[in-house]
Amino acid sequence: MSTTSHRPLRPIVEVAAEAGLEPAEIVPYGPHMAKVPLDALARRGEARGRVVLVTAITPTPAGEGKTVTAVGLAQGLRRLGVRTVLCLRQPSMGPVFGMKGGGTGGGRCTVEPASSINLHFTGDFHAVAAATNLLAAMVDDHLSRERTPRLDVRHITHHRVLDVNDRALRSAVVGLGGGLPREERFEITAASEVMAVLALAADYADLRRRLGRIVVGTSSEGTPVTADDLRAAGAMAVLLREALQPNLVQTQEGGPALVHAGPFGNIAHGTSSLISLRLAQALAEVVVVEAGFGADLGAEKFVHVVGAHGGPQPTTAVVVATVRALRHHGGVPPDRVEQPDVAAVHAGLPQLGHHVRLVRRLGMRPVVCVNRFASDTAAELDAVLAAARALDVPAAVCEAYATGGAGAEALARLVRDATAQGPLQEGGRLYGPEMPLRAKVETVARQVYGAAGVVFAPPAARRLADAERHGFGRLPVCIAKTQYSLTDQPQIRGVPAGFELHVREAAVRAGAGFVLVVAGDISTMPGLPARPRAWEIDLDPDGTVRGIA
């Protein structure tokens, strides 16, 4: 596989040694990747490293460089002598071949070997797909043999997956070649409940319990039917045994990075595995972890979903902003966001203020990172830095994409100082487990998005009521909505007021441990764009991969 590195990669045993892992505590997958068995964490006891969450303002479709910033920050902290471990999600191959391209960073800020990480890596995604599809096959076998508990064919909630974008499979009919014909749909692997289970499981026993709790549908009497009822969870756990072990790789500058699990930031909580976070905390002084999309999605879910399952409370949140995104939120048409426009930047600055206040409300000290692009002007950058000063937030311009860790040192110093202060005394979770599910949704909608209220479609309201009736009311809510707006309408930019959030679906994800609430038009199976990135990907005669990172 090729690498985008500007320096030779270190042998993975050297990277492990820097992280504090013995050679016997890793299982190499070639010279530059390794699995870390779970007993390496068990031997280290309590995790002590402080967590820095990398989040952002509401992004544009082009993305604002959170992964680049997370990698650059980890590299910058390492240059300052801070013992640092980076935690990232594994990229899904759907976006790699679709619209987004590779998910390992860019420029001088990548995790390596990038091509391997973006493709099959250590096989974790394939294991998740196999476990998910095994359960789906056992659902259909259960139906065709009319086993008890009798599943209602109209209310099957577990679906098949694959890790590519394929809109033709959003709706399908299965069973025509044998069994019971029924309507079915495929989801992308990263959107599956099994992926969320992998990302939130604490150990093998917890993994097995969570898999058993997955609700596959309802019985003819209207009660939930689980994977344990179908006697499927044990085999699923076996398929996921190695996948639960975190993956150790390195940044482009040779620092340790754990890239593990890949739950989507809309349909799930959108961050790397809980077990990789705990391992990183046990090894490092500072853990840098990226959350999906803007703070309204990634940071909120980190606090309420990951936190509800034993995850750490970050001390600091890096809010990534770009001049390009501020122009966008200031009203510039999409075809002009690369052109300088100081007035539009000023008009877009309420977006920055919204997300800074939000991370404070969630109990984290904000640090603003202005991720610099070539089209940025000095006047525009000064406007963003002045806005940060007015918000009483430390801020730095980051040029890590161009110069790696050296370009992130100013940001790293601010983060090091903020993290040393510890967590904020005020702020934290906005709701507790005792709050009714509808009230949890309304709390997030009002206090995180700025909505005036929530409109629940009748099917969603019924499913939330059923969830509470069946004992799932204490779970946190995971709200799926567009990442491009604080509302559920992607075309609405800036910081709107007086809007309503429209909830159209709800589903219990008992294995993952949250109730999924869908607002607006969200698909669990993306389609390929008009110009897929797959057109640009190829294999050279010498085996070099081109076009991914």
Please provide a written account of the structure.
The chain has 18 helices and 25 strands. 33% of the residues lie in helices and 19% in strands. Strands 1, 2, 3, 4, 5, 6, 14, 15, 16, 17, 18 and 19 form a twelve-stranded mixed β-sheet that branches. It is globular. It starts with 11 loop residues before the first helix and ends with a strand. It has 549 residues and is of the alpha/beta class. Helix 3 packs across helix 16 and helix 8 (204-213) crosses helix 9. It folds into three domains: 12-120 and 247-420, P-loop containing nucleotide triphosphate hydrolases (Rossmann fold); 124-239, Domain 2, N(10)-formyltetrahydrofolate synthetase, CATH 3.30.1510.10; 437-519, Formyltetrahydrofolate synthetase, domain 3 (Roll).
Cα distance, first to last residue?
A: 12 Å
Tally of structural domains: 3
Over the alpha carbons, how many angstroms does the gyration radius reach? 22 Å
Percent strand: 15-25%
Gross CATH architecture of the largest domain: 3-Layer(aba) Sandwich
Unreliable segments (pLDDT under 50, ≥5 consecutive)?
1-5
CATH superfamily of the largest domain: P-loop containing nucleotide triphosphate hydrolases
CATH class of the largest domain: Alpha Beta
| Class based on secondary structure composition and strand pairing | alpha/beta
